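Bumping my old thread because nobody answered last time. Still need a sequence for this structure:
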């Protein structure tokens, strides 16, 4: 019998090396924040699951959260707007939201001493007809 997708997704984080502390923190907190933002439970979370062709090159979102409704939410994690690659990642995120409007796209800025995670929805996902 084949393992359920959720079991595989949970194992995806076992022993995973993330590219930043912010990504590591999102791996443990992100499901809750996305569930609150979309008012829907998250069933599956994957790290860097795929890349997209966008104007200006390829773009690989940091996380994919699949909601219980089947909707897919891609999340770009940034520690700060002052990061050297922030503007490039932001422009590719916006391009992905335009080229692939049937997904949800979110930018997540890591918490600071004075605030928690800052989440911004990019574009608006369109319903499939």
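Sorry it took so long. Here it is:
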């Amino acid at each position: 019998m084949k393992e359920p997708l959720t079991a595989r997704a949970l194992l995806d984080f076992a022993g995973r090396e993330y590219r930043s502390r912010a990504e590591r923190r999102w791996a443990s907190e992100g499901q809750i924040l996305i569930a609150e933002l979309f008012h829907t439970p998250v069933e599956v979370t994957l790290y860097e699951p795929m890349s997209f062709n966008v104007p200006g090159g390829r773009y690989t979102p940091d996380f994919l959260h699949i909601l219980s409704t089947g909707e897919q939410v891609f999340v770009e994690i940034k520690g700060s707007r002052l990061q050297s690659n922030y503007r490039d990642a932001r422009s590719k995120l916006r391009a992905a939201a335009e080229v692939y409007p049937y997904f949800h796209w979110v930018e997540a800025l890591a918490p600071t001493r004075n605030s928690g995670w800052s989440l911004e929805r990019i574009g608006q996902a369109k319903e499939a007809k």
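The mean pLDDT is 86. Let me know if any region looks off to you.
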